[in-house]
């Protein structure tokens, strides 16, 4: 994460409209959202709603694209042909998710070039999780199980987000994430039931990915400047803490089922709440990674910029081809 604007101690308003909105249109918009209607690209919407969506959807798209890097790193080293084919398919899916999401954001009046420029210049964020290294093959299992598992928890409620194109993109993305989560868990299951060394690899991957995965859900609700408005506009359907808790409750029994230890001594089932109590998340680490100080922040951005520059000829060729077809079609 390259931006440095996040201040963990200060609540800032998410997006402030430049001019007051027409109160009659605003009331009609809010009534539609309250009635669970989808808002579509040509509908009137408050400027702050549009900006919040562009921010969230484009950051989500960037996360998918940057998220291809830690796993892409293992395609040539997958331990079997089957594992390689599955991982290739998964990484391609992430590229597809990025493309649907960029397309959804474009319906709000921004362009692909503007979004990419914001990512490369550090003005736009991407998920903190992708700034951590993938040290062993077990990390590929942990990413599928935990990172895609966390993504599903976050994205299932987004299938009912109030903006139609985002909600529809989420439906397809969630189906694919579900396959990703299972492929990751299956790798972990295999390693955990393997040799002592394989089991150690699986445990070490869980130790390193557990806490960063919990950070994916964002800051705690009482320090989440965008949540209140996004919940009111039904962009977000559940809060950061609610989704984090759901993820923990579902994932801890999965770790137990394959005899791995979640690295949290404070983890304890709370009968009254019907949920797990868990230890303190290191928010200092989270905010440092958000500020661009994550272990691999520079490498990730360099890799993205290099890929963009080296792909310039492909974009030019595609545009030239489209122009030729347009001219040919006009002449027919
Ligand atoms: N990392 O007010 P808050 C995937 C920022 S990809 C970085 O709670 P909001 C996958 C936040 O942006 C999964 N930044 O914000 C891909 C905000 O800063 P700005 C990606 C974070 O938006 C490949 C500030 O902190 N999923 O699954 O209401 C392989 C304050 O936060 C993070 C999505 O993007 C973070 N973890 O809630 C495998 C889901 N957390 O923008 C898997 C869609 C917070 O005001 N996004 N920040 O400068 C969301 O649901 C919401 O945007 C969030 C944050 C829950 C993430």
Notes on the structure:
With 332 residues, the chain is an all-alpha fold. Helices cover 64% and strands 2% of the residues. The chain contains 13 helices and two strands. The chain has helices spanning 23-34, 47-66, 68-72, 81-106, 112-120, 137-158, 164-192, 196-215, 227-232, 240-257, 283-293, 297-310, 312-331, and strands at 268-270, 275-277. A two-stranded antiparallel ribbon has the order 1-2. Strand 1 (268-270) and strand 2 (275-277) form a beta hairpin. Helix 2 packs antiparallel against helix 4 (81-106) and helix 6 runs antiparallel to helix 7. It is globular. Residues 1-15 have low confidence and may be disordered. The structure holds benzoyl coenzyme A. The site of benzoyl coenzyme A has 31 residues, from helix 2, helix 6 and helix 9.
Task: Pick out its properties.
mainly alpha; 13 helices; globular; binds benzoyl coenzyme A; 2% strand
């Amino acid at each position: 994460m390259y931006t440095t604007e996040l201040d963990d101690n200060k609540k800032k308003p998410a997006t402030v409209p430049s001019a007051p909105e027409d109160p009659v249109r605003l009331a009609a918009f809010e009534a539609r959202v309250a009635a669970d209607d989808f808002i579509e690209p040509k509908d009137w919407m408050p400027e702050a709603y549009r900006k919040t969506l562009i921010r969230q959807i484009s950051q989500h798209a960037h996360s998918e694209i940057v998220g291809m890097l830690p796993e892409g790193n293992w395609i040539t080293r997958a331990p079997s042909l089957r594992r390689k084919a599955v991982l290739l398919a998964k990484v391609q899916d992430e590229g597809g998710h990025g493309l649907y999401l960029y397309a959804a954001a474009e319906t709000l009046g921004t362009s692909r070039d503007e979004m990419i420029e914001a990512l490369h210049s550090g003005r736009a964020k991407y998920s903190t999780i992708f700034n951590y290294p993938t040290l062993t093959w077990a990390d590929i299992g942990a990413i599928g199980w935990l990172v895609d598992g966390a993504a599903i928890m976050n994205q299932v409620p987004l299938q009912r987000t109030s903006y139609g194109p985002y909600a529809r993109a989420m439906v397809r993305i969630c189906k694919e994430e579900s396959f990703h989560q299972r492929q990751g868990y299956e790798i972990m299951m295999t390693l955990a039931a393997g040799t002592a060394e394989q089991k150690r690899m699986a445990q070490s991957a869980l130790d390193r990915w557990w806490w960063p995965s919990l950070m994916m859900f964002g800051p705690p609700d009482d320090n989440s400047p965008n949540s209140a408005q996004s919940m009111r506009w039904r962009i977000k359907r559940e809060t950061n803490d609610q989704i984090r808790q759901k993820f923990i409750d579902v994932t801890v029994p999965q770790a137990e089922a394959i005899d791995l230890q979640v690295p949290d001594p404070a983890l304890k089932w709370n009968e009254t709440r019907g949920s797990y109590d868990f230890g303190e998340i290191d928010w200092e680490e989270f905010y440092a990674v958000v500020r661009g100080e994550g272990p691999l922040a520079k490498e990730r951005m360099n890799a993205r910029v290099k890929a963009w520059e080296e792909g310039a000829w492909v974009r030019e060729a595609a545009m030239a081809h489209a122009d030729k077809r347009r001219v040919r079609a006009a002449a027919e």
